[in-house]
Amino acid sequence: MIETSTVLPTDVIACAETLQMDGIELIGTRRSLWRRPDASAFHLLVVGGDGAIIDRAMPVLDVLGHNVKRFGGLGTGMAAKVVNNGVAHAVMVVLIEGSPWPRRKKRRPRRHRGHAHRR
Questions:
Q1: N or C: more exposed end of the chain, with fewer CB within 10 A?
Q2: For 12-41, what is each residue's pLDDT tens digit?
Q3: CB-based contacts of 26: which residues, under 8 Å, 6+ apart?
């Protein structure tokens, strides 16, 4: 089984232990879409898990991503995704906070002229 959700490494390890009782093998992946300078895109797959399981899954992994990178044991692909998401969100916050467009001239609130307030 190939896990591609954004979950904690401990979650994917616990899931693998449960599945292993039924003879099901699991690897974890982090999937990202990257844009090249020429505007074309490719999917990067960061995979964690047992090397023999990854070898058997390579035909499927090659379809899921243009570039497959092995990171190590089970949970390392998930850890990479969690760290990547944290860094990406931090960069977005810095860009938004530092850009001038969110700042607007303060205006007095408009008074509501609805029927409910008429006497």
A1: C
A2: 899 999 999 999 999 988 877 776 677 666
A3: 1, 2, 3, 12, 15, 16, 19, 20, 49, 53, 74
